[in-house]
Inverse folding.
């Protein structure tokens, strides 16, 4: 392994591995960052004291016990696509920590089955699956599907415990809305089942803030029949000036804000240096799409591409159009985001200011993107208090990215400027999707903006299930008693 005298933590983890190759890595190992840490956002360097790759739920449990005995924090990694690289920076005041890598076969069964009584399909699979792999497996076992995002390389373990939003979410809800039961390893190293009827409070918290409460090793989810036909469209707008995009965005936003918008339809507005792309997905035939009247309300004047495909084909198409087919490639980037309700929609004045800003400000990079995506529909049907996901009243999500090799201060300022224009125009928009983490946020601000009115209940559940804050990162949920202690110390 390349290190000298072993620490008690290393001895404990190595005992679990029992000589197995590629089981655990330490900072002293050759190419530790490249082979073991594998940070997604290269702008943020992280150095855990160990990276552990368990094969079974029992090994996860034993590794957590090793960590707690050494007073070390634990964070799980599934696909490894955290914008904040699991949000870890070097802070001498913080306890050391380890990364626990989920495996796709962790927890055992990867089967799909049908109950004989009412033809209700469920799938059970390990938490390390990437979305693209999961789509293939569900297709092979009965042409089934579930709602999720567009990036095929994202791991379901993190995705389905934060939210999991994508093109089919307006029709089916979020990924976590499909979850019926989980197998989870808790802070004391016990393997538990959590569902609506067993450990209900833990199950509530895991669906929205999972990383703070345990390591899920297995999911059981309800599935949907694959849509037989999917219509994909793309409008590409190229203008000499960014400000010419203002009326295009305004028309697009009017379509998205319609409370009666057909739930089979979802859409993205993607602004880039040379123009904008409006992409959309309609789960149905071309004739059904045309009968909705949506096409007549969308902006005109751009290059139009229409494609009729099937479910798997639509997933590939969306990844290609948004550049997410390259999602395995780490780079240096910086991102900002905001979740918007109907009343937070951008006014025409804000829209004009936004594109005036992007057209007149040096971005410091050739690679920047601003994305708005449609929400609502089935997502908002779910009662707000049924899960820890706080965005049941949102109709739009916005995020912006700047990419650089290396990332420079001017590019970050450009992204901050975009965010400031939107935030100034929508001053009452206070929440962000936890899947778009912002490492620049302080601990208390992050908790409030990610979990909003769910935060107090999450803190109480955290105090019950993880009182010593084993599952910790700089933006994770604090146990309620820790907040009381910190307040007393401050006085």
């Amino acid at each position: 392994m390349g290190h000298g005298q072993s620490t008690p933590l290393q001895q404990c983890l190595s005992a679990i591995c029992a000589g197995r190759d590629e089981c655990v890595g330490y900072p002293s190992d050759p190419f530790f960052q490249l082979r073991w840490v594998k940070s997604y956002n290269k702008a943020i360097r992280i150095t855990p004291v160990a990276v552990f790759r368990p094969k079974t739920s029992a090994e996860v449990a034993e590794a957590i016990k090793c960590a707690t005995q050494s007073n070390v924090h634990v964070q799980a990694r599934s696909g490894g696509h955290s914008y904040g690289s699991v949000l870890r920076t070097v802070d001498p005041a913080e306890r050391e920590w380890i990364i626990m890598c989920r495996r796709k076969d962790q927890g055992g069964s990867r089967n799909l089955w049908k109950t004989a009584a009412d033809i209700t399909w469920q799938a059970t699979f390990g938490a390390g699956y990437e979305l693209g792999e999961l789509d293939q497996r569900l297709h092979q076992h009965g042409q089934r599907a579930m709602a999720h995002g567009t990036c095929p390389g994202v791991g379901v373990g993190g995705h389905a415990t934060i939210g999991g939003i994508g093109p089919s979410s307006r029709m089916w809800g979020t990924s976590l809305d499909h979850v019926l039961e989980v197998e989870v390893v808790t802070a004391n190293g016990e393997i538990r089942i959590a569902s609506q009827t067993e450990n209900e409070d833990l199950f509530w918290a895991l669906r929205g803030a999972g990383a703070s409460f345990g390591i899920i090793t297995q999911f059981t989810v309800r599935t949907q029949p694959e849509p037989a036909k999917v219509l994909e469209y793309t409008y590409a707008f190229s203008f000499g000036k960014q400000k010419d995009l203002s009326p295009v965005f305004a028309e697009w936003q009017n379509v998205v804000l319609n409370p009666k918008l057909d739930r089979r339809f979802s859409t993205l507005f993607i602004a880039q240096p040379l123009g904008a792309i409006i992409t959309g997905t309609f789960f149905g035939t071309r004739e059904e799409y045309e009968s909705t009247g949506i096409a007549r309300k969308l902006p005109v004047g751009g290059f139009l591409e229409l494609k009729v495909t099937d479910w798997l084909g639509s997933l590939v198409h969306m990844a290609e159009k948004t550049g997410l087919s390259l999602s395995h490639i780490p780079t240096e980037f910086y991102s900002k985001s905001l979740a918007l309700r109907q009343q937070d929609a951008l006014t025409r004045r804000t829209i004009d200011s936004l594109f005036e800003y992007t057209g007149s400000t040096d971005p410091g990079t050739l690679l920047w993107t601003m994305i708005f995506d449609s929400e609502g529909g089935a997502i908002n049907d779910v009662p707000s208090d049924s899960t820890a996901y706080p965005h049941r009243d949102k109709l739009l999500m916005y995020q912006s990215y700047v990419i650089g090799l290396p990332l420079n201060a001017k590019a970050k300022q450009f992204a901050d400027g975009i965010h400031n224009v939107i935030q100034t125009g929508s001053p009452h928009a206070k929440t962000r999707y936890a899947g778009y983490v912002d490492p620049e946020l302080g601990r208390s601000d992050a908790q409030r903006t990610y979990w909003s009115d769910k935060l107090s209940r999450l803190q109480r559940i955290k105090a019950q299930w993880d009182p010593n804050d084993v599952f910790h990162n700089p933006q994770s949920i604090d146990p309620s008693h820790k907040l009381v202690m910190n307040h007393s110390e401050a006085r």
